[in-house]
Amino acid sequence: MIRIIIVLCCFLCVQDEPVISWNDSYKLTWADFKDSPNPNTSAVAITASGISFGYSIKQTDTQVVGFSTEVYAHFYPEQSWYKPERADAHVLAHEQLHFDITELHARKLRYRISQLGISNTIKNKLRQLQKDINTELRALQNKYDSETDHSRNFEAQAQWNAYIAKELKTYSRFKSK
Question: What is the pTM of this model?
């Protein structure tokens, strides 16, 4: 069984540990999984990934006049692990897709932010967008594991690979740089 932990970072989250930012030219390797495996679980691997999000608001005494945001999809090596005796390339591809799903939701968050106008309620709108996207991310990660039976259903895995590739392409304008 393969499980995922989603690390959800909030506003201006400070990372004390190393991270790998999502990049379309880099694929995870087993060397990226640095934590010790948990011998008390049937999981073969754990991918810790999440969206870090920060924003700044520019305002006069009474009016918001602008805002900027930073959104990143991160993989957390120090919280991710695998069992070498049971892991293979198929399992690694499954774990990569968990990270890709995180990137997809980072893109969706950037897209939704791009639809916002400047207003005095922007801070609340940004917080709500972050909350909503993290809820959606968690739900899709769980659905992915459920439908693929944690990578054991090869046909479902292939369908998910195609679906996420299509979705990433749909939101390619908002990909991580």
Answer: 0.91
